[in-house]
């Protein structure tokens, strides 16, 4: 089992997400004494009998109330069994795009609902976005379970409705877990609650500690070989290293070993890996996520933006289709001239056709929309000024993703998934 799990939180406004995140930090002893003392004093000044743990992350909430541009906040905590990186995403509907950013690398997402409200519109929106992103596992945290009468019946009803939703979105039942919790009182977070005698499953932390770090969609990454976008060419030209030429970057997918045959894309040149260098010394093998410098056996023409890949790499294409989440206030329309960033390569592109827009509430597709508005998700075609090799997102979440960028301002306009991510969802297509 990996000792690191990347998780994210999502949920509607006032579902108690800030309190849950604060509770996770507190119960795993990831809060400094002076931080907790400050929270205790602030809570007492408000007339509260107990520390308000949401104040541990209240700085971000205050930013939201001021209307400041919000990005994802990352929290770090650990238990004796595992370390965690948590992407804390905003709950407001206008920040759905931040859910995309925070959940894009998550191996598990904790989706909160208020037990008094159940599955609502924002719950369905978040679940649909997480399905498109290929998040392997979900936890539905039915929060504020202490505030509802007949909690067993309500929990069962919410779980049944959520299971129906996630099944239609493509998740297998074993990859979705529902847990009744009270973030305020700590029920079923780190310890079991006597108030939920009807529930005999794991606590939230027990589940986070035991869940496999890799889900089925990530296992699919093993179906493609090496993908290594060249970030920088290292040529010291010193007396000690007069002829050294190394290609620095991060292994985006697959693995690379000394002696492996590789292809330089898009040129198509073939060579072998003569060495793998790191700051800590040479390696025999480097896997996805490792930053290394590759030494190639032949003097090939490779530079920043090129892709060093295993021979299974696809033929370069000058047109592709992708699923995008539009992040800008100005709508996207056919014919827009943008920049597409894939790996370390950024090239001019033109949006061809807006194929369909995703209706996350009805799980339906609206064909050929006139535009994609802020937070809209849709399938589009893109023409590229230069041919590139791409992999579908369903095969690898890293190698199959891209960004659309405003060429004049440099602002990111959309997060994109190569291929038709919408096909993972059972859509009613007109």
TrEMBL record:
GO terms for biological process: sulfur compound metabolic process. Residues 2-218 form the Tr-type G domain. The keyword Oxidoreductase does not apply. Keywords: ATP-binding, GTP-binding, Nucleotide-binding, Nucleotidyltransferase, Transferase. It holds the Pfam family GTP_EFTU. The keyword Transferase applies. InterPro entries: CysN_GTP-bd (IPR041757), CysN_II (IPR044138), CysN_NoDQ_III (IPR044139), G_TR_CS (IPR031157), GTP-eEF1A_C (IPR054696), P-loop_NTPase (IPR027417), SO4_adenylTrfase_lsu (IPR011779), T_Tr_GTP-bd_dom (IPR000795). One of its GO terms (molecular function) is sulfate adenylyltransferase (ATP) activity. Its EC number is 2.7.7.4. SUPFAM superfamilies: EF-Tu/eEF-1alpha/eIF2-gamma C-terminal domain (SSF50465), P-loop containing nucleoside triphosphate hydrolases (SSF52540), Translation proteins (SSF50447). CDD domains: CysN_ATPS, CysN_NodQ_II, CysN_NoDQ_III. This is sulfate adenylyltransferase. It comes from Mycobacteroides immunogenum.
């Amino acid at each position: 089992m990996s000792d690191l799990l990347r998780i994210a939180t999502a949920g509607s406004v006032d579902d108690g997400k800030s309190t849950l995140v604060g509770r996770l930090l507190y119960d795993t002893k990831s809060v400094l004494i002076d931080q907790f003392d400050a929270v205790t004093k602030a809570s007492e000044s408000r007339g509260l009998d107990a520390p308000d743990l949401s104040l541990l992350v209240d700085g971000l909430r205050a930013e939201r109330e001021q209307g400041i541009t919000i990005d994802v906040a990352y929290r770090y905590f650990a238990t004796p069994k595992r370390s965690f990186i948590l992407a804390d995403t905003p709950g407001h509907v206008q920040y759905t795009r931040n859910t995309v950013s925070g959940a894009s690398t998550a191996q598990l997402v904790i989706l909160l609902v208020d037990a008094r409200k159940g599955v609502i519109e924002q719950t369905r929106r978040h679940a649909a976005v997480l399905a498109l992103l290929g998040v392997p596992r979900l936890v539905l945290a039915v929060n504020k379970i202490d505030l509802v009468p007949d909690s067993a019946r309500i929990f069962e009803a919410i779980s049944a409705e959520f299971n129906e939703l996630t099944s239609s979105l493509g998740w297998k039942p074993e990859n979705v877990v529902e847990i009744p919790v009270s973030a305020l009182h700590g029920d079923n977070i780190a310890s079991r609650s006597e108030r939920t005698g009807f529930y005999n499953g794991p606590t939230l932390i027990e589940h986070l500690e035991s869940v496999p770090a890799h889900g089925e969609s990530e296992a699919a990454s093993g179906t493609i070989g090496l993908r290594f976008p060249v970030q920088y060419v290292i040529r010291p030209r010193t007396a000690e290293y007069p002829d050294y030429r190394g290609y620095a970057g991060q292994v985006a997918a697959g693995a690379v070993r000394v002696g492996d045959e590789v292809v330089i894309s898009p040129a198509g040149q073939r060579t072998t890996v003569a060495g793998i260098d790191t700051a800590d010394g040479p390696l025999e093998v480097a896997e996805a996520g490792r930053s290394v410098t590759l030494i190639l056996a032949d003097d090939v023409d490779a530079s920043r933006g090129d892709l060093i890949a295993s021979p299974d790499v696809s033929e370069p294409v000058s047109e592709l289709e992708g699923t995008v989440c539009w992040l800008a206030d100005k709508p996207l329309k056919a014919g827009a001239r943008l920049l597409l960033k894939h790996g370390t390569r950024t090239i001019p592109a033109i949006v061809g056709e807006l194929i369909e827009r995703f209706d996350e509430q009805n799980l339906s597709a609206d064909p050929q929309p006139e535009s994609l508005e802020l937070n809209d998700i849709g399938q589009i075609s893109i023409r590229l000024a230069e041919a590139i090799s791409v992999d579908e997102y369903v095969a690898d979440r890293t190698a199959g993703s891209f960004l659309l960028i405003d060429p004049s301002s440099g602002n990111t306009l959309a997060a994109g998934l190569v291929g038709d991510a919408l096909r993972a969802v059972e859509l009613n297509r007109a």
